[in-house]
Amino acid sequence: MSHEVVVREAAGAQQEALATLEASSFDIPWSADAIRALLDDGLTRAWVAVVAGAVVGAALVRVVAGEGELLRIAVHPEARRQGIAHALLGVVLSASADACPLGIHLEVRASNVAARHLYARQGFIDHGRRRDYYQAPKEDAILMHWRPAGTRGPRV
Which of 43, 53, 55, 106 has its CA 20 to 30 A from that of 12? Predict the structure, then answer.
């Protein structure tokens, strides 16, 4: 990668950039309005990965009662396999640790081996499966959970 990756909390005006990233990354992308509603709900935080001034990655985490859910993480297709998702997720987990003493959970497509490896490298563990969770195409979701180092709480 020829440019440095800068990960920072997303500004409120970045919902259009986040929606563009969504459209390039997901079969059923969220709209700018849906992203704006999440960012305005008081429970959701977003981070962006920026390279050479362009948003190339993003992550959204919702925090409720000491537990987080990684709602989305995406890297633009042309910027994948350059360590951006790893850098982004590392910052997100570090920034979320205090607010999420019970940890962060997520669902990931069973076939998304690259994402599952990314999560495992960051300390997420498998803890279940949801049959036919995804619809386009129909596929199971693997449930994964991460807990900040040194925290205790109910086991998942």
Answer: 106
> Domain residues for 11?
5-146
Instruction: Count CA atoms closer than 13 A to 152's CA, side-chain side.
Output: 0
The pLDDT tens digits of the residues spanning 124-138 come to: 999 999 999 998 789
Report how many domains make up the chain.
1
Could you read off the pLDDT of 62-89 as tens digits, one per residue?
999 999 999 999 999 999 999 999 999 9
- 47 near 88, Cβ under 8 Å? yes
Amino acid at 4: E
Query: What is the token pair recorded at 91?
Result: 């910052």
